[in-house]
Amino acid sequence: MRTTLAILSLAGAVLVPAITLAAQVDASLIPDGTYVVKVEKVPDAQHVTVVMQNGVETTLTAKGSVNFAPVHPNQTLKVSVIKGQVPVFVIQ
What we know:
Blueprint: H1 2-21, E1 33-44, E2 47-52, E3 57-62, E4 76-82, E5 85-91
Parallel strand pairs: 3-5
Antiparallel strand pairs: 1-2, 1-4, 2-3, 4-5
């Protein structure tokens, strides 16, 4: 019983920091540029939640005539970000 409780408390202590690292960052705080990202989910055609190569998670918004309808979770995208919006992307 004590061993099980010790293992569970150790696992909790390890997982709590990992959960806090997954907090989302506002896309407008990401510097303008081109990034390779992995798709987490696509809530609608105008938004996509991604994880960047440095581990930052954010929700990007399509700009203009761009939409994320052909994008699926676990795909890799190359996106250009300007003021937190995506004017162009390529599925890799």
